[in-house]
Amino acid sequence: MLGLVQRVSQASVTVRGRVTGAIGPGLLLLLCAEPGDGPAEADRLLAKTLKLRIFNDDAGRMNRSLQDVRGGLLVVSQFTLAADTRSGNRPGFSGAAAPDIGQRLYEHFVAQARILHAPVATGEFGADMQVALVNDGPVTIPLRIAPAR
Q: Which of 26, 54, 111, 124 could form a disulfide with 71 if both were Cys (CB 3.0 to 4.6 A apart)?
């Protein structure tokens, strides 16, 4: 499972002219399921996201997690994270899970996130979305959770 975490001072997602999710300070997570991923990978990526120490402590060091600072979490589905650009100029997306699997894992991730953390906001799976954010730092970190063997 792939994720791209961005520490933000604010972020929002708009679908068809309507804001579907917005947060203040916290994390924007772009999320992509890959073939072979299941709920276990989603759960491990969620745990990593919630505990990733990328917020400043009182000394200005990145030593606090999203849970420590009680920040918002905005989760946006993003199949293009699995883009293969090794050949030619047009990316291939066969590295992304099939849409039905991707949606199931996205919904599982969001449901678990809402159990473990608040607030959690979302985009809309499969929709054409406009994402607005103010990246704080900037801090942008790629995450990858491989299927368990």
A: 26
Topology of the domain comprising 2-138 = D-tyrosyl-trna(Tyr) Deacylase; Chain: A; (3.50.80)
The DSSP H or E segment spanning 112 is: helix 99-116
First to last CA, the chain: 14
Is 109 designated active site?
A: no
d(CA 79, CA 69): 29
Catalytic residue among 6, 49, 79, 125: 79
Pull the structure tokens for residue 131: 């994402």
- Give 10-residue mean pLDDT values along the chain (149 residues): 98 97 98 96 98 97 97 97 93 94 98 97 96 97 89
Residue 85 among the catalytic residues? no
Residue extents of the structural domains in the chain: 2-138
Contact 46, 27 (CB under 8 A): no
pLDDT tens profile 74-98: 999 999 999 999 999 999 999 999 9
Q: Token digits for 109?
A: 């991730």
Residue 20 annotated as catalytic: no
